[in-house]
Design a protein that fits this description.
The protein is an alpha+beta fold. It contains 3 helices and 6 strands. The termini are far apart.
Length: 85
Amino acid sequence: MVKAGERVQDVRVTEDTLTVDLLDGRTISVPLTWYPRLLHATEAQRNNWQVAGGGFGIHWPDVDEDLSTEGLLRGAPAPRESTPA
């Protein structure tokens, strides 16, 4: 269950890390390799983010990436595309 304090306060993206500050004071840091769209984006594209989903999500319009605080807190990387056998 998502809690009110799990809303996004700030987002920072470096060359190798995504860091999200939540309203309840927690900070989530995950490797950028978990999110290939962000990993391969330019600095300008990474910095062009918007709070979405009532404050519980982050959207990057330039690279069509959407993440939720719930998924970040679970430590869930982006789903891998399946390859044919």
